[in-house]
Write a structure and sequence with these properties.
By secondary structure, the chain is mainly α. The chain is 69% helix and 0% strand. Helix 5 packs across helix 6, helix 10 runs parallel beside helix 14 and helix 13 runs antiparallel to helix 14.
C-alpha cells in the first residue's frame, strides 16, 4: 500500500495543501481588511480578535477584571475606539496573561502576530503528524480553520499546541510533550482528551510536565493580576453557563452536541444529560484506545473525542480536527480503509463549516436555519474514526508474526 491517501498523485496532494494554505491566508487578509474600515461601514466589529485586543489593553492597564463584567467591557470597547459587542468574557487568567503583550501593539500588528503565530504552529504541527498526507488533512479540516483565522479566534493556536504535543509524544519526548500540553491551560476543555490519554496510557512523565506547566501559568497569572481574578473568572463562567441554558449564544456557530439537540427542540436539561452521557462514553473510548490501540491511533481517538466533552464549543474550536485527521488519515490508508477518507473529510466539513455557510446565508441579520448539525457531524466523525481504527487494529502479536514471516 503506497503512503498516499486514496492513491492520489503527489501533485493532487500538493494542490489540496496549497488550496488550504491560500484559503487560510485569505481569511487572515479579510480580517485585516475588515479592521481597516469595512467594520465601521457595516456597523459591526471586524472580528472576535477586536475583543482579544481590548482585553490585552485592559490587562496592561491593570483593569483586567473589567473584561469579565459585561457593562464594563462594553464601555471599554467604546472608550478604546471599537464597536461594542455584548459578549461574556470567560477565558481563564492565564489566557489574559498570554494576550497582554499584544496590548502594546496596534490592532492590525497585534492580529498579525497572533494569527501568524497560530497559523505557523498549526501548519507545522499538522505537517509533522501527517507527513505526505498533510495536504488532505489540511483540506479536510479547512472550514473550521478558516473560521478561526478569519474571525481572529484561537482555534488554530490550540490545535497547533495539541498537534505539537502529540508529535513530541509519538517521538518519545514525553517531557517536551507534557510541557506543550500544559499550554492548553489557556483553554482547558480542549486538553481533556489528551489528558485522559496520558492518564489511561500511564504517561506519567508527560502528565507531570503538563501539570507543572499549567500550575506555573496559573501562578504567573496570580502574580500578575492577583488571586481574586480567579473568583471573578469563575463567576463569569457560571454566568456563561446560565446564558447557554437560556439559548443566548449564536446556535449556528456552536458545534456542541448540546446545541445540536436543543436546536431540535429538546429542553436544556435533557440535552445536557445526553451530552454528559456521550462525554462519558467518549472518555471510556479514549481510555480503551490508550490501552488497546497503537499510540498514534489512540491519540487520534483522543483528539476526536475532545469536542464531545463540553456543551460550550464553537466551530473554530473544531480546528482540532486538523491534527486529529493528520493522525487518522495515514492510519486509514495503511489499513486499506481509503474508502473512509472521503466520508471522514465530509463530516469534518459539515462540523466545521455549518457556521461558515450560515454566515454566508445571512446569519448575522437573522437568516438562520432552525437546526444546526455541527454537533451531530462531530459525533459521527468520532464514531466513524474510532470504529475504523478498532476494526483494523492488529491482534496481539500479529505485527511481530508478519515481520517474522517477511524476514
Amino acid at each position: 500500500m503506497t503512503d498516499t491517501p486514496l492513491g492520489a498523485s503527489a501533485l493532487t496532494l500538493r494542490l489540496l495543501g496549497g488550496l488550504a494554505v491560500v484559503a487560510l491566508l485569505g481569511g487572515a487578509a479579510l480580517n485585516l481588511a475588515g479592521a481597516t474600515g469595512l467594520a465601521a461601514l457595516s456597523g459591526v466589529s471586524a472580528s472576535d480578535f477586536d475583543m482579544f485586543h481590548v482585553v490585552a489593553r485592559l490587562a496592561l492597564a491593570g483593569r483586567i477584571e473589567e473584561a469579565y463584567d459585561l457593562d464594563a467591557m462594553l464601555a471599554a470597547q467604546i472608550a478604546m475606539g471599537g464597536v461594542p459587542r455584548p459578549m461574556t468574557w470567560t477565558y481563564p487568567p492565564p489566557f489574559d496573561l498570554a494576550l497582554a503583550p499584544l496590548g502594546a501593539l496596534g490592532r492590525d500588528a497585534a492580529y498579525a502576530v497572533f494569527a501568524g503565530t497560530s497559523l505557523a504552529l498549526y501548519l507545522v504541527g499538522v505537517a509533522r503528524l501527517a507527513g505526505r498526507h498533510a495536504g488532505v488533512a489540511l483540506f479536510a479540516a479547512l472550514p473550521a480553520a478558516v473560521m478561526s483565522i478569519g474571525s481572529g479566534q484561537n482555534g488554530l493556536l490550540m490545535a497547533g499546541i495539541a498537534a505539537l504535543a502529540c508529535d513530541a509524544a509519538l517521538r518519545g519526548r514525553e517531557g517536551r510533550a507534557g510541557a506543550v500540553l500544559g499550554l492548553l491551560v489557556l483553554k482547558p476543555h480542549l486538553g481533556l482528551g489528551l489528558g485522559l490519554w496520558c492518564l489511561a496510557a500511564g504517561r506519567w512523565r508527560m502528565l507531570a510536565a503538563a501539570a507543572a506547566v499549567a500550575a506555573l501559568a496559573c501562578a504567573a497569572s496570580v502574580a500578575a493580576f492577583g488571586a481574586e481574578l480567579w473568583g471573578v473568572f469563575l463567576a463569569a463562567a457560571g454566568e456563561a453557563g446560565a446564558q447557554l441554558a437560556a439559548g443566548a449564544y449564536p446556535a449556528h456557530r456552536m458545534a456542541s452536541l448540546h446545541v445540536a439537540l436543543t436546536s431540535l427542540g429538546l429542553p436544556h436539561g435533557t440535552a445536557i444529560t445526553l451530552q454528559a452521557g456521550v462525554g462519558l462514553a467518549a472518555a471510556a473510548a479514549v481510555a480503551l484506545a490508550a490501552r488497546r490501540l497503537a499510540p498514534r491511533r489512540a491519540l487520534a481517538v483522543a483528539l476526536l473525542a475532545t469536542p464531545l466533552f463540553s456543551p460550550y464549543l464553537y466551530d473554530y474550536d473544531l480546528a482540532l480536527h486538523g491534527p486529529a485527521l493528520a493522525l487518522l488519515l495515514p492510519e486509514l490508508d495503511r489499513a486499506g480503509r481509503r474508502a473512509l477518507v472521503l466520508p471522514a473529510g465530509a463530516l469534518a466539513w459539515v462540523a466545521g463549516g455549518t457556521g461558515l455557510l450560515q454566515n454566508a446565508r445571512g446569519a448575522e441579520v437573522g437568516l438562520v436555519a432552525p437546526v444546526t448539525g455541527a454537533g451531530f457531524a462531530a459525533l459521527a466523525l468520532a464514531v466513524l474514526a474510532a470504529a475504523a481504527l478498532w476494526q483494523s487494529r492488529d491482534a496481539p502479536g500479529a505485527t511481530a508474526r508478519r515481520r517474522a514471516a517477511l524476514s
